[in-house]
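Slide 14.
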Amino acid sequence: MKSLLIAFSISASAIQCMVHEQQAMDCNLTKLPPELINLITTQYMHNRSLWSDDQKILGTDDFHSVILNKNETRILTTSKDKTAQVWDVKTGKPILNLSHNGWVNSACYNRDETHILTASYDRHARVWDANTGQLMLTLVHKNWVRSACYNHDETHILTASYDHQARVWGAKTGNLITTLSHHSWVRSACYNHDETHILSASDDCARVWDANTGQLMLTLVHDQEVKSACFNHDETSIVTISHDTTTRVWNATTGQLMLTLVHDQLVRSACFNRDKTSILTVSDNNTAQVWNATTGQLMLMLMHDDWVRSARFNRDETKIVTCSSTCAYIWEQYFPSLMQAQLCSLLFTWLCVKKYPKSTNTIDKYLSEILKATAPKQYYDESMLYAVWQSFPAGIQKQLWKRIKQYL
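Slide 15: predicted structure.
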């Protein structure tokens, strides 16, 4: 397994503190450009890579989705290789393989994690024993099944399909209970918490339906096709994503548009955290991003080497799990010291104003140049800067060095 990959950023408060101290020292520092502001965002996060390119022999090919189980010992993924797989978090090894005859688009546990529910392009949603992998139930559509989920008490299963229908099924019998017809492919469908409403995404709209009567209650319109929609935890808001490269937040009662997050490429998924203060999105710009759900301010950017397909918070929201191509990651918070934050501010400021040959293979000479260009010697010396550099975890040093070379 390869060494840890690190996504690096700095808190806004720390940046303000650094700017204040640097101004007090009369350092002539230039304003950071937008691409570095994006790099230096609001938190340090680091990740553990569970799978790498060296392990493609495991059979995984282009993950579609990823979630953690409750006690964070297992990760459940879906993939184009026609499987949903359960992996051991510590070892990164697969422990359960659930096979379909087409790409598997989504998978989720039931509440006590005894069952796994999957949805596939083979036109089937399936319920499996989460311990043995035994097939328990099969639900059949006339076209690809895009998503499947349980209602709160697990008596019903809700599926969304490219046959233009969202369907409600008996979770034990598999009997069809309700059909909600749309004009185009249904890309996602979910219940609200008390199961009175169903939220679906199809064509250029998200729609809220009465779960008992099937009556259409609310329509939320984008400029292009809506890929998914979900409620926040207290169901006062709805977040939608669309081919128009926006994520939008709506009032769940009135349908009023409350916030628009604009991305530079296609958005793949979006969800709220539990207290609805943050929105987690992924897009084809190789990032997962956390946004302030009220102001729309970008708060965190997690960099990947490929398209990010899915991202979810863990239960206590101290971690984020993402998947990208053949890799899955768990991102964890890392809090820097003020000296480490100051060093990074000096480092990237210096990179903005002075280029240095890429042939340099060590950090030592860069730290010397930073000292000459940005900081009076009565406050810093080269050995001090190097000691601060060495105080970073090895993985962060490695990723910082990688980022430095990108800006040379």
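Speaker note: DSSP finds six helices and 29 strands in the chain.
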